[in-house]
């Protein structure tokens, strides 16, 4: 979801709107090299020569053209499709006079016990059949929306896509997911009301014909309100429907041999890791969080052309998006982000309010930007010697709304220490979640994190850049933050706990339910309930197909299909070439990407 209000301030000036993705069909040209060994003198015995004398290294470099590799954050597409087609799950009888009269009469007869058992059973069976048909039509529309975009990128744009899906909800986000579930539950209740919202509050126990006639009337505004509630509800909170939707989606990806990866937890960190490691050339997303994670090339608002100069938005116009590169971020006119590092962007996002931490009342994106800039770029006598994060927290306390200031200040008031401690805990935990996400490395085949803890395992830590470590040293000057990132157990309580090696590989491919817990294995029902809490992007692994070609809702913990049909993410990363391969003998010397998306110079870390 990201930070509210940040994209409208950045994209109009820093982004390239209405970017036609078909211009990427020519791919990119890169200089790659292969390392070979040959014997200097074949006549001499190997044991009579030293290693330096027996072999030498030759590097054969050549220019080659390849397709662009684009990672897709599937959360945005699924959420958009689920909410956009939410009206398919609404009972259409609410939108007609005759249908509302039938609903009211059925309700009256059921309440009074007038309906016969046989007629009631028939009505129940008919209602269940109609509901099943509605769900099937809804799932078909959602899958059609997603697969059409994927096929367009593959066929029309000549792009190799890697689909990244969200996994288990990280511990720090459990509260936010519960709140979203409650909002969706209220929307579902409003969608399925037997009476219109205005008449529901004024209804009485009188069930005469006059009352029935009065309650069948509905205004256009009330009908639109019900449709709006159905779109807000989206796929709803039914775990069976969610399981069926996610199962069929994974089966579609497998049947078309599309490479996908289910991230251990949030897909944001996984996408940033793939991009920053050179595994993909860009990311298509709707989440603004990727801006602060250092992704070089982002494509937002993928859809039809939204400008009159390009003619009418027909299907022939293709898909357009807004391209945002990391180097152009400082040119945003809506907000000054010049010279902002990744750590500064992370702190600004947390101050303004993100998925992991609510902002203080009165703190918006502009105020958060000013607070971070003053803390990093200016230093007065009062702030001399104080850590940067401490300066930011004190500035937030002083610039928030007066009611918040009265709750948090003065600092020497011990009674208000608990309120400040609660916010600081969420504040620091959010920064840790952004900076140290738990991700899956498709080359190593294991879950890793930016683990800088003193007791961290080396195989669980990524090879972070020198710039990341310099920024991290500045943040770790604040002792509470240092304690979080230096303690492995404290870090895992925020970002989630890694899985064993074999289990990690199965989970990212959907062979094992991503709700599987190392300590206590949850049942299928508990997993489905957790999926309803985070139903926008949570996925259940597909199950073995039934005779009627419908997935089973009782068995989805282990995938029973053959692994031979599974698309290989490692093949996508290694088999087609990478810019930073940890296991192959290829060494990319440079990368010159074209056309405009790839015109910017390659990052220094890609040069070797």
Question: Mind explaining what this structure looks like?
Answer:
This protein has 608 residues and is α/β, with parallel strands linked by helices. Helices cover 43% and strands 13% of the residues. Residues 110-120 have a biased composition (Basic and acidic residues). This is XPG-I domain-containing protein. It holds the Pfam family XPG_I. It comes from Cyclotella atomus.
Describe, in short, the structure shown.
The chain is of the alpha/beta class and 608 residues long. The protein has helices at 7-14, 51-54, 74-84, 97-112, 117-155, 174-191, 197-200, 209-215, 220-233, 239-255, 267-276, 342-352, 365-377, 388-399, 402-408, 417-435, 466-475, 479-486, 488-495, 501-508, 524-533, 569-575; strands at 16-20, 28-39, 55-66, 68-73, 159-165, 260-262, 282-284, 297-303, 320-325, 438-441, 446-449, 586-593. Mean pLDDT is 76; it is low at 35-46, 51-57, 196-216, 307-315, 456-460, 519-567 and 574-608.
Keywords:
single chain; 608 residues; alpha/beta; 7-stranded mixed sheet; 3-stranded antiparallel sheet; 12 strands; globular; disordered C terminus
DSSP strand tally = 12
What average pLDDT do the residues reach?
A: 76
**Main beta sheet strand tally, sense and closure:** 7 strands, mixed
Strand content: 5-15%
Range of helix content: 40-55%
Helix/sheet category: alpha/beta
Alpha-carbon distance between the two ends: 36 Å
Q: What's the Cα radius of gyration? A: 28 Å
Strand order of the largest sheet: 1-9-8-7-4-5-6
What is the overall shape? Answer: globular
Count of helical stretches: 22
* Poorly predicted sequence stretches spanning 5 or more consecutive residues: 35-46, 51-57, 196-216, 307-315, 456-460, 519-567, 574-608
């Amino acid at each position: 979801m990201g930070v509210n209000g940040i994209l409208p301030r950045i994209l109009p000036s820093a982004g390239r709107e209405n970017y036609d993705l078909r211009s990427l069909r020519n791919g990119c040209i890169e200089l790659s090299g292969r390392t070979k060994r040959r014997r200097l003198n074949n006549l001499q015995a190997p044991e009579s020569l030293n290693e330096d004398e027996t072999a030498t290294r030759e590097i054969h470099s050549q220019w080659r053209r390849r397709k662009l590799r684009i990672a897709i954050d599937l959360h945005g597409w699924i959420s958009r499709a689920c909410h956009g087609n939410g009206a398919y799950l609404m009972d259409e009888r609410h939108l007609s006079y005759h249908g509302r009269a039938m609903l009211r009469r059925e309700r009256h007869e059921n309440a009074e016990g007038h309906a016969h058992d046989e007629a009631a059973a028939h009505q129940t069976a008919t209602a269940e059949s109609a509901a099943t048909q509605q769900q099937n039509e809804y799932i078909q529309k959602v899958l059609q929306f997603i697969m059409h975009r994927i096929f367009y990128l593959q066929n029309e744009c000549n792009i190799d896509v890697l689909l990244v899906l969200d996994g288990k909800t990280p511990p720090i986000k459990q509260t936010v997911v519960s709140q979203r579930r409650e909002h969706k539950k209220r929307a579902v209740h409003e969608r399925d009301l037997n009476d219109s919202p205005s008449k529901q509050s004024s209804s009485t126990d009188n069930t005469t014909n006059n009352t029935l006639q009065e309650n069948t009337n509905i205004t256009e505004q009330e009908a639109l309100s019900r449709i709006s509630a159905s779109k807000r509800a989206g796929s709803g909170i039914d775990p069976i429907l969610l399981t069926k939707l996610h199962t069929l989606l994974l089966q579609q990806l497998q049947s078309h041999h599309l490479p996908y990866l289910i991230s251990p937890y949030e897909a944001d960190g996984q996408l940033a890791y793939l991009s920053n490691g050179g595994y993909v050339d860009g990311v298509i997303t709707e989440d603004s969080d990727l801006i602060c994670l250092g992704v070089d090339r982002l494509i937002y608002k993928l859809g039809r052309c939204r400008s009159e100069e390009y003619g009418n938005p027909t299907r022939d116009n293709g898909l357009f998006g807004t391209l945002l590169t990391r180097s152009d971020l400082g040119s945003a006119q809506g907000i000054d982000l010049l010279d902002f590092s990744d750590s500064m962007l992370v702190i600004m996002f947390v101050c303004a309010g993100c998925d992991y931490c609510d902002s203080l009342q009165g703190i918006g994106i502009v105020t958060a930007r000013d607070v971070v800039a003053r803390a990093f770029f200016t230093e007065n006598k009062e702030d001399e010697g104080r850590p940067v994060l401490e300066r930011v927290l004190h500035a937030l306390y002083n610039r928030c709304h007066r009611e918040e200031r009265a709750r948090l200040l003065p600092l020497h008031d011990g009674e208000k220490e608990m309120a400040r401690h609660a916010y600081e805990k969420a504040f620091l935990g959010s920064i840790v979640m952004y900076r140290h996400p738990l991700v899956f490395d498709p080359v190593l085949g294991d879950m890793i994190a930016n683990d800088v803890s003193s007791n961290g395992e080396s195989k669980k830590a990524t090879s972070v850049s020198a710039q990341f470590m310099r920024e991290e040293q500045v943040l770790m000057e604040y002792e509470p933050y240092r304690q979080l990132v230096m303690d492995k157990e404290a870090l895992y309580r925020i970002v989630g706990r890694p899985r064993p090696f074999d289990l990690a590989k199965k989970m990212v491919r959907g062979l094992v339910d991503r709700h599987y817990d190392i300590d206590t294995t949850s049942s299928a029902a508990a997993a489905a309930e957790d999926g309803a809490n985070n139903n926008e992007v949570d996925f259940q692994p597909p199950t073995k197909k039934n005779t009627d070609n419908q997935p089973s809702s009782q068995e989805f913990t282990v995938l029973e299909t053959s692994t031979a049909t599974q698309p290989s993410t490692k093949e996508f990363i290694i088999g087609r070439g990478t810019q930073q391969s940890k296991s192959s003998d290829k060494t990319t010397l440079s990368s010159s990407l074209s056309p405009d998306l790839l015109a910017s110079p390659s990052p220094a870390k890609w040069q070797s």
